[in-house]
Amino acid sequence: MAANETPTQQPGPPPRSILKLAVSMPAAGLLIVLMAVGSIFLWLGIPIGLIYLVSQSVNSSQPTLGPYVALIFGIPICMFLFGKLLFQLDRVFEKVTGRESQADFRAPWLKSMRAERTNRRKLTVLEMTMIVSVSLAIAAFGVWFIAFAGSSLPGS
User: Fold this and answer.
1) What's the pTM value of the predicted model, to 2 decimals?
2) 150: left (phi over 0), alpha (psi -120 to 50) or beta
C-alpha cells in the first residue's frame, strides 16, 4: 500500500437500530435498561444518598466542616467510580452485541473550513443514555421550577 492511500473498509452488515437490537437480543435490552437506570442513579441516587447518609451522621443543626468536606469530595469520587462501572456495562454491551464504538473522531478545530463534514463519530449506547437522562433531568427541573417551586421573594 502506498503512503498516500487510505485503507478500505470491508463492507459489513448494516448497523441495526438500538431498538431492534434490544428486541432481538434480550441480553442487550437488559444491558440498555441497566445503563439507563444506572445513569439516573448516577445523577440522582448518589448525591441524594450521600446527603442523606451524611445528614444521619450529624447530631446538631450546626455541623462542623467534616460533613461538608465528606460531601464535597465524596459525591464526585462516588460518581467517578460508578461511572467506571457504567463504562464496563457499555463494554459488556459491545461484546454481547458485537457492535464496536467507532472512535474515528476528529475535533472540529482541527478541520479545514472546506473539509467534508461526512466523517462523524457515532455515539455509544452509554453516551446516548447519558444524554437522554441529563436532558430529562433538565426538563424535569424546568417543570418543577416553573410549576411547583413557588416564589422565594418575601410577600409573594
Assistant:
1) 0.67
2) left
